[in-house]
Amino acid sequence: MFHDHKLTAAHREYGRKDSGQRADDQAEAKAVMEALQKRDAELKGWLEKAAGQIKDTGAMAAETKTALEAIAKSGTELQARMMEVEQKLARRSGDGDAAHKSTGQLFTETAEFQSVKARSGGTARMGVKAVTSISSATTGTGGVGDGIRPARLPYIVTPGMRDFTIRDLLMPGRTDSNAIEYVKETGFQNMAAPVAELAQKPQSDLAFDLLTTPVRTLAHWFHASKQVLDDIPLLQSYIDGRARYGLALVEEAQLLAGDGTGQNLLGIIPQATPYAFATYSSSGDGKIDRLRRAILQVRVALFRASAIVLNPVDWADIETAKDGNGNYIVGDPRGQVEKRLWGLPVVDSDAITAGKFLCGAFNIAAQVFDREDANVQVSTEDRDNFIKNAVTIRAEERLALAVTRPESFVYGNLVNGNAS
What we know:
This protein is an alpha/beta fold and 420 residues long.
């Protein structure tokens, strides 16, 4: 015979306790949802601010980046908390959900048990399925992988990016034309000499030439669906930033080494004077010695060098150079080393080939003229964009480079050999 009054009372108490815990979990879920909504609003505001900064300056402010990282961290924590609450609620899915009831509860609710209870005696039997392990698998009994959602970080991971420095060495300028003209002295016959009283004075002569450098356009474009840009606001600012970066990447290479053919700029290196190896080199010269002698070549040409451009690999070699006692000549592994050699700033640029150098009077010998600053435009009026709900994103800039004193630049190898 079964005496079930204690079991029934315990069952009722369990139900009340489970119901209260479920209410607490539901309240916590609501609080987490409100926090996520607040996070989304903050994220939208910072993303709009980041997009404006990238559009105005080409880069995201450090403050904005820090804020976005903090929001991403808080969002990950909130999503983990929400997942935990959802799992709790799933375990408390209701008194009528047999999948979450104890074996005792299931047994007391069977027809056989109720029959034994009514007869005040007898035997009751209940079949129990084999226990199934719950796993993150997407198939099979107990697999709930499709119900687990990954947490996505609210930003796009950007690959490594170059620092652009060559433009900063040159004189800035602007133009509203499609070409730059300048007059250059090409000959000076100096006949100045001491002259006797009433004697004929000697005549000197000057020659000039009119030179022209054209404005060139650097441009590229992306194709994207309108829905993607609408649904992921961060993508808009990301593409904008990458579009501007692409322009700057080509601009740096053109300013240094554009060959002037087709639509290329005529850069500094093709116009520079080759390093006079036979005139200035000495046996046993190292890279540092070679640079000092190149500075001398600029000085002999009656100019004063203002900077040196090296590949990062060569600057690392110079920083790690040691004397006969094993002491660093330029570098200091215990601190930051100012990038200077022979009194001049050293600019390490990926745009110059390893093993080469360029030095010269950047501050007076070359000038960049901007006709149209780098800009990004979005349009649906391109091919079949309208009917496909797509957009074309175009980035372009227009500029000219005038190397007015090419003889003040010296270009060559850091090791034996001429510049070729």
